[in-house]
Amino acid sequence: MGRVLRTASAMVLCASAVNAGGIERSAQSVALLFEEGNYVEFNMGRASPDVSGTQMFPVPDASNSGDMAVDYNTYSLGLKLRVNDKLDFALIMDEPIGADVAYPIASGYPYQGSVADLNSIATTALLRYKLPNNFSVIGGIRALTTSGTVQLFNGYGLSTSKETDLGYVLGFAWEKPEIAARVALTYNSAITHKFDADEVASGYSFDTVFETEIPQSLLLEGQTGVAKDTLVFGSVRWVDWSAFDISPAIYTNAPENYFNDALVSYEDDTITYTLGVGRRFNENWSGAVFVSHEAGTGGYAGNLGPTDGATALGLAATYTRDNLKITGGVRYVMIGDAKTEVPSAFLGGECANEDCGTFSEFEDNTAFAFGLRVGYSF
User: Which N-terminal stretch is annotated as signal sequence (predicted)?
Assistant: First the structure.
């Protein structure tokens, strides 16, 4: 099939800067390990989401939130080395999770002026050992550094320490190079951060400590040639988002707790499906089209992340010349509709596991993502 077509499924990564599930911004693929010989790459992406909602309580269509999702960039680096005939090594630096929220000021929407920022950097070292019959095992460690800040309309503020903690990666793969066939299953462990936090509530500042688990995930990737110069590829990704919870001590007990319980949490896990077709046009050019879908989980979403599932369409193209490979991609995301729950403070008491009703509806929202990858074999 040739080097150009064998990596067609990796084109998807260039246009995947927006992920609907939780706060994820990287699929943590191990495709880099399957590049031929020694290889280095640089990736950059730009995401432009447009997420707005309408206040429904106490009066329907009372006010519009305006676009509360901020455009953002993502970057990653990857290095793959062929150690010997049996062993390959890869080092990946990326931004696996993140959030950029800013409700416009003077919109009349109750959460106007609320902002949130979450940043992360992960460094992952991987080894792939080749076994007989085209099987291989994959393993590695991942160091994740995370920090965040929040400032809410009601005067509550949060600033966390920058914490670095370790996780691990395990997986196995099978391939048949003659037909560009490959299947890889990888597991990324959960990573727990213990943050030192500076919380502000009722005009007072508090030094507190809380823990947050960055969830475990499982990724199944596959591809195979189906005709001359044509490849079909896909993936299924599960993320344990129901285990993710940001609950600072003062926030969860303060009278200003307008969000009922956790600052950020998710009721259900997510499963994302991707399917695409890659085609080599000549020795220099190849392209791919793909679609991905993440079903909504229902229930209420949080006001700092008012989305529920997504469907995306994408295009990517790769130009190869000698040892240089340049890939560009674009992705259009139809973000799933979501409802947020009436804050308990607006009702004069706690919801206490009861349905407080719909506070806002976020509908017909979209996002565009653009990606560029430059790779070099040596």
Answer: 1-20
